[in-house]
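Render this sequence as a predicted structure.
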Amino acid sequence: MRSALPSLQTLVGGSLSNADVLPCRSSNCVGLSSLPLLALIMPEPVRHSWIPDLPLDSSLLFEFLLFLYLLVVLFIQSTNI
């Protein structure tokens, strides 16, 4: 069983009602009456990005590339010494 939604006074903590307008400094002020009450309570759902499937290499190709990488690292380390 779902409980009732909290009132706007509970959320804001003041004596604002749906007809009150929040003070603002710009010319395009937006009052609380123009926003739906659920937009103040419910967050926007999370939209995850799509991760593409990566192609897999064979085990033999992976071992060969790892061997080449280690040879290059060994050469660089020997030149460093």
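Summary. The radius of gyration is 30 Å. The chain has three helices and no strands.
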